[in-house]
Each structure stands twice: as C-alpha cells, then as structure tokens.
Amino acid sequence: MSIESAKHFLWRIEDRIGRVTLNRPERKNPLTFESYAELRDLFRALTTDNDVRAVIIDGAGGNFCSGGDVHEIIGPLTRMDKPGLLNFTRMTGDLVRAMRACPQPIVAAVDGTCAGAGAIIALASDFRFATPAARTAFLFVRVGLAGCDMGACAMLPRLIGQGRASELLYTGRSFTAEEGERWGFYNLIVPPEGLLLEAMRLAGEIASGPTFAHAMTKKMLHREWNMSIDEALDAEAKAQAVCMHSADFHRAYEAFAAKRKPVFEGN
Prior knowledge:
Layout: E1 10-14, E2 17-22, H1 33-46, E3 54-59, H2 70-77, H3 82-101, E4 106-110, E5 113-115, H4 117-124, E6 127-130, E7 135-137, H5 152-160, H6 162-171, E8 174-176, H7 177-183, E9 188-189, H8 195-207, H9 211-223, H10 229-244, H11 247-257
Parallel strand pairs: 2-3, 3-4, 4-6, 5-7, 6-9
Antiparallel strand pairs: 1-2, 7-8
C-alpha cells in the first residue's frame, strides 16, 4: 500500500507521529479481511519510512476494536476450506509480525471495547493506555476457537504471567482497566478526555528521541525473548556498539559537553 493513504481506517502523520484510527464506530470498529491486510501492509511499509518516528493506534466513537467482524469475517470463515482458513490465520499473524518488526514504537490508546483481534493489536503494541471504561477480552474461546490466536499464547504470558494469561485465554472473560494496569497489561489509566493527549505526549517524547536507538531497543526486546542471558549479553553488546557508532550518540555527547539539550536526527 501507499503509506500516504489508507482505505479501511484513518491514517495521518503529524510531527513525525503516525496515527491509525479504526473507523467503523457504528459497530465498535471491527476488522475485515481488507483492513487486516491493509494494516499489515502499513506496518510493513513503516519499516523503511524515516519520517514517522512513533505510531498511535486508537478507535473512533468511544471504542477501540471489537475484533473480527461477525458478518464480514466470522460468517465467511465457516464456509472456507482448510487452505483458505490457513491463509487467513497466517495473514492475521503477519499483522502482528509487521507490528513487531517495524522500528517505530507503537502506542495503543484504548477506550471501551477491546476484544478478540483488537485485544491482540493492543497486546502487540509497545505501550498501552486505557480509559476507566476499557474492557479487554481475548474472547476466542467464546466462538469455539483456541486461545492461541495471533501469538496470544506467546505474548500474553510474558506480559502478565502464565496464570493470569491462562485464565483469560481459557475463559474469554473481559478484564477492567484497573485489573489490566495492576497486572502490567496497561501502562496507565487516564480519563477519556486525556487519552489521546497522553498517547500523543508519549509518542512525541519518543519521536524527539534517538530514533535509531529506539528502533534497536524495540528489535532487541523482541529478539531476546528466545535468548539465554549469556546470548542476550552478547547480542546487546553488539547492538550497543552499533548505536555508539551512530551520529546521535556523538550529538548527545557534544550537547552534554556544551550544557545544552541534544537534538537527535535519527542516524
């Protein structure tokens, strides 16, 4: 897709921050086959976009995302053959891959319903802010499916612990913003009128920072899930040495020596 445009959600860039707004408020912003694919393509395109330094995902109309559209996805899936079903599930997984692989940190701003694939999109983000009205559910079991959807069984236990993840994935129950913050799923709870402002504040702080180094942090946070401590120490030594060779590292030293705030340029 062209990174300048989107057909199935709102996309705009301001002050080096890209903002995705899921925009079907009359149905709590469900996903379709087309929006899954377009989101995947957007995050893939961001890999080579130097103008966007952070991304915010939110939903229109007081809800984040209700998951896959019952009529436009769930119904058609019941009529697909096995190869078609596998193509679909692999595509949804590719959206998570693209979110984790893009160098820009992603902030999910969650209000109201955050369910199914919507909960996965929040989970795959780097930061999650919620309003008190947020209700989050990995509800795959409620439609006769396993909790192992779009990487949930890998990502959720690492974020909130095996026991809590097991409860949510087996029961499909929703949890409140307060529970989510206490468990570490949500970074912060903010009033509805402050949700986007807080997301923009954090995204702006990230966008003004050392972009190359932030991308390296995101990359290593993801890669080191499957490393031993010894492997991680070696990988981080190499990663940090690369960052020390960057112009931003030298800019920071020069600014410190001159007693001024560094201006990072992302290289």
